Amino acid sequence: SNGNITVEASSLADMLKVTHGTQVTDGISTAQEIVITGTSNDHKVTVNLENKTVNITLDDVDLELSTGDDCPFSIDKGTVNLTLSGANNLFATGGNPGIRVANDSNFGIGTLTIKGGGSLVAKGATNGAGIGGGNGRSGGNITIEGGTVTAIGGGGGAGIGGGCSGSGGTIVIKGGTVTAIGGSGYVVNDATVGGA
Predict the structure, then answer these.
(1) Is the pLDDT confidence value at 189 over 60?
(2) Whole-angstrom distance, CA of residue 131 vs CA of residue 133
(3) What is the largest CA-CA distance in the chain?
């Protein structure tokens, strides 16, 4: 891996800007598919798009973070249509979710739709959801239409939805094979899908 990946709105109308390490590519159409592949234990993907939409394919991506307090794939604002290809692993550190789909004042509101024929294992760290909010944070808008998705919450985090003490957000499962496992730290408040 050559560094962190950031997807954000371009100053050009209806375009995106992608930064990968020190390389910046501006003027990417919102209709274009961005394919991410590779392995890293210290790099991450961040999407901050306000009201725009980006199409991203994960193709055998393995981001199993090992140190610090980080989320391997964070949707802070905007909409991500995520296609799964091959086997993908997203493991967080600190109090973060495997995939952050934000819904709070610190980040914003994120929307995620998962589809495709590949697989994904998203694992939250301490009190973070597998897919959704981090520790004390709520989940955003999450739809699963395809793929084999395993979402594992850490501590008091939901498999899919909120981190510990966070609300679940909006969760729709239309297809695919979905396994959501809540964290085991707080049995009374534990949840597999929804708030924690």
Answers:
(1) no
(2) 7
(3) 49
Instruction: Give the integer Cα–Cα distance in Å for 161 and 76.
Output: 15
Residue 80 to residue 145: CA distance in whole angstroms: 13
> What does the pLDDT look like over 17-58, one tens digit per residue?
999 999 999 999 999 999 999 999 999 999 999 889 999 999
Distance CA 41, CA 20 (A): 16
Are 43 and 85 in contact, with CB atoms under 8 Å apart? no
DSSP secondary-structure letter at 102? B
Both structure tokens of 112: 């995620």
Structure tokens at 14: 């209806």
92-117 residues labelled b (16+ CB within 10 A) or e (exposed):
bbbbbbbbbbbbbeebbbbbbbbbbe
Give the amino acid at 69: D
* Residue (of 15, 102, 56, 99) closest to 24 by Cα position: 15
Neighbour count for residue 29 (Cβ, 10 Å): 12
Q: What DSSP letter does each residue of 51-88 carry, written as one string?
A: EEEEEEEEEEEEEE--SSS--SEEEEEEEEEEEEESEE
